[in-house]
Amino acid sequence: MIDELVVRVAERRDLADLDALFGRAYPRSLKADYPPSIMVTALPLISKAQPSLVTCGTFFVAENESGIVAAGGWTPRRDSRMGDVRHVVTDDQHQRQGIGRAVFDRIFTTARDANVTLLDCKATRTAVPFYKALGFKTLGPLTVDLRPGISFPAVQMQRWL
Q1: What is the pLDDT of residues 10-41, one digit of tens each?
Q2: Which of 15, 132, 145, 147 qualifies as a FRET site for 45, CA 20 to 30 Å off?
Q3: 118-123/150-160 β-pairing
C-alpha cells in the first residue's frame, strides 16, 4: 500500500532489482498495445536498467515490503530549462495504488528545484492515459530508435511545471 512506500534516489546497488522490475513489468504492461513483432525486438533493449541513468541522482525507486515496485526519473537538457522523463515503470501487480504518482511527485519536485520548466516524455502507448492524468499534453506519435534497425512506436508528451 502507498502508506508503506518509500521513494528514494536510485543507487548502483539497485541495478539487478531494476532489471528484474523492467523484465517483468514491460512484457505484461505493454502486451495489449504492441504487436509481438515489436515486443520481441524491443523488450530485450528496454528491459535493462541503464547504469548512467540509475546513478544520475534524478532517478528514483519506490519500494515497499515487496521490494522495488516502481521507478522513474528525469534528466536535464543541456543549455535548456527542459528535462526528459526517463524509464518510468510500475510493476503491473502494483498499479493503480498511487505508486507511480508518488514517483512523479519526486520527479516534479526535483525538476522544479533544478529550475526546469518543461518536461518532455516519450511515452509508451500504454502509459498515455497515466501521463494525461498527471497533466501531460499529447504532441503526437513518434518513433524511438532503440538501436540501428530497431525502433519503438511511442507518443511524445509534455508538461509545464
Answers
A1: 999 999 999 999 999 999 999 999 999 999 99
A2: 132
A3: antiparallel
Q: pLDDT tens across 68-109, in order? A: 999 999 999 998 999 999 999 999 888 888 999 999 999 999
Q: What is the DSSP string of 22-79?
A: HHHHHHHHHTTTS-HHHHHHHHHHHTS--HHHHTSSSEEEEEETTEEEEEEEEEEPTT
Mapped onto helix, strand or coil, the DSSP state of residue 94 is helix
pTM over 0.90: yes
The Cβ of residue 64 has, within 10 Å, a number of other Cβ atoms equal to 17
Residue 108: its H or E element: helix 99-113
3-class DSSP state for residue 110?
A: helix
Answer yes or no: are the C-beta atoms of 137 and 159 closer than 8 Å: yes
Helix (H, G, I), strand (E, B) or coil at 4: helix
Q: How far apart are CA 2 and CA 10, in angstroms?
A: 18
142, 50, 41, 139: CA torsion to nearest 10: -10
Evaluate the CA torsion angle 113, 65, 51, 123 in order and state its sign.
negative
